[in-house]
Write a structure and sequence with these properties.
Distance between the termini: 70 Å
CATH architecture of the largest domain: 6 Propeller
Largest sheet: 8 strands, mixed
Number of helices: 10
Number of domains: 3
Radius of gyration: 42 Å
CATH superfamily of the largest domain: Apyrase
CATH topology of the largest domain: Neuraminidase
Oligomer: single chain
Strand order of the largest sheet: 16-17-18-19-23-22-21-20
Shape: elongated
Strand content: 25-35%
Helix content: 25-40%
Length: 669
């Protein structure tokens, strides 16, 4: 009996031990599923040409460090050279032909004038001879009394053959000169008009030649980023087909990690989650990252990450953005684990063992849409920094001097004032744009190529309904350190109006003309990209949506003083409205950062009943937007980035003499 009891207890202990081991193994396996492996990679730029070219010179070698803007490859296009030479010869021929034609006409005019002078001189000589003879006859006959009657007849000239002949010669002179005058006049008109068709051809060819020379000047390849030359695929004097990679360029350090989660492993890895990344070769080399993408399909593992290279493995891709200041080597194997340790109760884990549910990776954030909105409050951190006595309307980050540039839409005496602010929110300097007299209602700013600063007035009317010249300006300023100097300025209102009148059949032109007619034009946002300025209209709306116009080749427009008909277009219309219950917002600023467009929107106080605003994120390909931050009681007027990584700085103009405020918005990447 005792043996049976001992055996039962022993069997019970064995079962309990086995059950505990199974539970422990299961819990351990689940805990280990938060870690996986990946490879440190970087963004690689493939540099190519859109047209067939020939390599003239290569200034770099593989593995060389280069700076942004450094010349990498010098190219020459035989087709472009032939075309330039052909047009140059055409211009020379037209100019020569123009000279020959005018020379022939001038020669004919001189010939006719000489003929006229000769004919006139000849007939007048005959008339003078006859007049002298007539006068002599009168003198001879006047002293003869016997023929006094004849003298009276001679004096009267009646039926006198000499007088008749003189009259005949005068008529002949008039008849001879008239056709010569007509021919001369016709030739003079022909001379004046002879160059017109040729002038038109010359102007067209000169314009085409300038464009070709400009395109020829763009053949040289410059580094778009500071980094390392990956590969050089051609040698000097080799011909290159269109879009064939000539040089590859990548950043010095890896910019992201691509990890793989095995298909049989349970994980809650999702977009926005923070992770720790450690080198498998050196455990002291580590950094943090943020998940920016979780694959929606199962793919094959890279051979390097397989435990056995001969056995295929499958899983989901996870893309993680890492800090630029990492010590990883390109292509290095790393270990990835979640930096957010979630604790679960023993009961919940046991429940998962006995009542298993579906196992899946956390779903990605919803795609951007007109009504989608991120609800998590931890995605936005609003920290007021400082209060200053300026009405901040636009904001730019100036990296070289480590300062923010702030514009105010109301300055004393309409002075072109610029304020500089440090990262702590302290105004360190007040300066002005040298060479610019007056400008008012500065509402938007952008940085273009070579550091050029573009500033635009709102084009809106003041409280009295007036639109002065100082409220209609678009300027380009050169900046050296903390000093600003005017380069160019134009009357943006007049420029848009004239161009719209020439293009009345286009959507953007009708939009602009309607806004000007209703006196509702108000531009408050602007950003620069690829040589074009994009203008965001606070009002009017187009079918309920906010409008962004695009001005291509803005520097060319400044030089010419007017845009070509193809330079202005309607770039996007966006609806800044999350749902039917929320108020519609209008554009108060635009900012493009890391390939993403951010829009500051403010509500209409009359319809909303209170001050409020938001920061929106737009997908440039679809035009859809999602709200990423909201501000109750605040109206965002400016957006900038650069002071802190993945952080937007937002300025708020409270109006009515209230001081401006500034805040930080942390981006959830």
């Amino acid at each position: 009996m005792k043996n049976q009891t001992g055996t039962a207890w022993l069997l019970c202990i064995v079962w309990i031990t086995a059950f505990s081991a199974v539970v422990l193994i299961t819990l351990t396996c689940e805990q280990e599923s938060t870690g996986f492996h990946g490879i440190a990679e970087t963004r690689e730029i493939m540099i190519s040409s859109e047209s067939p070219v020939e390599i003239r010179r290569i200034n770099v070698v593989e593995g060389q460090s280069v700076l942004k803007g450094q010349m990498l490859v010098e190219l020459v296009s035989p087709e472009l050279t032939i075309r330039i030479n052909h047009i140059s010869h055409q211009l020379e021929q037209l100019r020569a032909q123009k000279g020959v034609n005018k020379g022939e006409i001038r020669s004919k005019i001189r010939q006719l004038k000489a003929e006229k002078a000769s004919r006139t001189s000849e007939i007048r000589n005959q008339i003078r001879q006859l007049e002298n003879q007539y006068n002599l006859n009168k003198e001879l006959t006047s002293g003869l009394k016997s023929i006094s009657g004849f003298g009276e007849i001679a004096q009267s000239g009646a039926s006198n053959p000499i007088t008749l002949k003189i009259e005949s010669l005068r008529q002949e002179l008039a008849l001879s000169v008239k056709p010569l005058n007509i021919q001369t006049e016709l030739l003079q008109k022909s001379l004046n008009a002879s160059g017109s068709p040729i002038k038109i051809q010359v102007r067209q060819l000169e314009k085409e030649l300038a464009l070709l020379k400009q395109e020829n000047g763009k053949l040289n390849i410059y580094a778009q980023i500071a980094g390392i030359i990956g590969s050089v695929n051609f040698k000097p004097r080799e011909k290159v087909a269109p879009f064939a990679p000539i040089v590859t360029l990548h950043t010095k350090n890896p910019s992201f990690v691509k990890g793989y989660i095995h298909e049989n492993v349970y994980t809650r890895m999702g977009v926005g989650k923070k992770v720790r990344i450690t080198s498998q070769a050196d455990s002291t080399s580590r950094t943090t990252g943020t998940v920016v993408g979780v694959g929606a399909r199962i793919v094959e593992y890279p051979v390097r990450l397989r435990k056995n290279p001969d056995i295929q493995a499958w899983g989901r891709e996870v893309v993680i953005r890492i800090l630029e200041s990492n010590q990883f080597i390109l292509g290095e194997k790393v270990s990835i684990c979640s930096s957010e340790q979630k604790t679960a109760t023993l009961l919940s884990r046991l429940k998962g063992i006995f009542l298993p549910g579906e196992t899946y990776a956390e779903s990605r954030s919803p795609e951007l849409s007109e009504t989608s909105e991120k609800k998590e409050p931890d995605l936005v951190s609003l920290t007021p920094l400082i209060t200053e006595e300026i009405e901040a309307s636009a904001l730019l980050w100036l990296e070289d001097i480590d300062r923010y540039m702030i514009l105010s839409d109301d300055t004393p005496g309409k002075k072109p004032l610029v304020f500089l602010m440090d990262k702590q929110g302290k105004i360190t300097k007040e300066t002005s744009i040298r060479g610019l007299g007056k400008i008012s209602d500065m509402e938007s700013a952008a940085i273009g190529d070579n550091g050029t600063v573009y500033i635009a007035s709102s084009l809106s009317r003041n409280k009295k309904g007036k639109l002065g010249k100082s409220r209609r300006l678009l300027i380009a300023a050169e900046r050296k350190g903390e000093n600003f100097k005017l380069i160019r300025k134009t009357d943006l209102y007049a420029l848009l109006k004239k161009s719209a009148n020439r293009n009345r059949n286009k959507d953007w032109a009708r939009f602009v003309l309607d806004g000007m007619k209703n006196r509702s034009v108000d531009i408050e946002g602007m950003f620069y990209h690829a040589g074009a300025l994009h203008l965001g209209f606070k009002s009017p709306f187009k079918s309920g949506d906010s409008v962004i116009l695009k001005i291509d080749r803005v520097e060319e427009m400044f030089r010419k003083g007017k845009p070509d008909d193809d330079q202005i277009s309607l770039w996007k219309t966006v609806s800044l409205k999350a749902d039917d219950a929320s108020p519609r917002e209008c554009i108060s600023d635009l900012f493009r950062y890391n390939g993403t467009l951010y829009i500051a929107g403010v509500s209409d106080e009359k319809s909303a009943g209170r001050k409020s605003g938001s920061i929106w994120q737009m997908d440039e390909h679809t035009g859809k937007v999602a709200r990423i931050a909201t501000f109750d009681g605040l109206r965002p007027e400016g957006i900038a980035a650069g002071g802190e990584a993945d952080t937007l700085t937002v300025s708020f103009d409270q109006g009515n003499g209230n001081p401006s405020q500034f805040a930080k918005v942390k981006l959830a990447l």
